[in-house]
Amino acid sequence: MRRKENFHLPPIGLRIIKSAAAVFLCYCVDLLRGGTGIVFYSQLAALWCMQDYVSDAKNHARQRLIGTAVGAVFGLLTLLLLPLLPALGASEILMPRIVVSLMIIGVLYTTVLLRRKQASYFSCVVYLSIVVNHAADANPYLFVWNRVLDTVIGIAIGVAVNLLRLPRERQKNILFLSGLDDTLLTKEHILSGFTRVELNRLLDDGALFTVSTMRTPASIMEPLRGIRLKLPVIAMDGAVLYDISEKRYVYSYVISDKCTEETVALLRRLRMHWFANVIIDDMLVIYCQETDDEIYNRLIETYRRSPYRNYVKREVPAGQGVVYFMLLDRKARIEETYRALDAHGFTKRLKILKYDSTDYPGCAYIKIYNHNATKENMIDYLKTKLQAERVVTFGSIAGKYTYTIEPGGEEQVVKIMKKLYEPVKLIRRRKPD
User: Fold this and answer.
1) Looking at the domain assignment, is residue 4 inside a domain?
2) CATH number, domain at 416?
3) What pTM value is reported for the model?
């Protein structure tokens, strides 16, 4: 029987709290105005501006303001035009409705001319609220003024509350480095909504953050899509530094030509098939062999669809530095190959990893790297380049990282980062005389 997973209520986020505060502040402003406006419109505008990112809040505020202005202008024009219709002998029932409907064309086309099509809906809402619901008011022009003013008040409150932050001291001299699987990603291999929003906010604010993983850059792209990383990621277990935004390899450790030739010669004697990963003009080329091995060919068919991997069935050209060799076979064959590599001294000259496959039951991997291809070396390289004074690491192996992330605690990475990067600074420290 399938065991039911424990249900956990998500915490109330800061955006929810700020939304409630913005609604209350709109009430406060309305009381100060003596109730002359309609607080409902202020509250709607404030909630519309309450976004995850400050840049989004400003963009939404701009849309709402432009939409309100366009709708109000056409609303005024329609209010001026409607009283003239009876003098022209037009139908008092049909003609006003035709005019209101035709004016919608002007409203929408104006947003197109202003290149603000996103504001078209708000323009129509404001326009129709004026000419449909309040055209018969004793003073409809006063409503137009209050409608615009209510929206401006709501926008101002929404943006102000969204920008509100406690005084904090940014620690821009700390390099944060997180693992990916079992650390930053959930069990569904995605980033949680909280992690995505808060991590982007920290990155936009200048936090030095990147990830380190055994994955290739191709398999990093999807889970980190939309994350605004400014630093290159450590990929292939420390063999390369890859800039996701610019899609280029910043730094890499490759296996020498001599070691490449000797490795290939031994693997041939053992009748093993392999994948040789080579970087050519910032493009990952994977050289492979023609074979009838089902598992080997299934792996190729699985990954060759990726635009970031390029499989070529030929030998590695002379002079091309191999980033790493990968072997996938039955466990017994992998064990035999590893013993042969060890007996010929390769384990002392190169970095060789052996581990079981989770995707192919009964099989295992061997990966062969330059002996300097380690996460530690890449961290030192980044630390020196960035002139960081401290490195904070996150991972799932106890004792290996600054902070160990337990299963199910993926959001702890960002929560710890927030505390370390931007501690609340309520008292200004005095500078020494």
Assistant:
1) no
2) 3.40.50.1000
3) 0.69
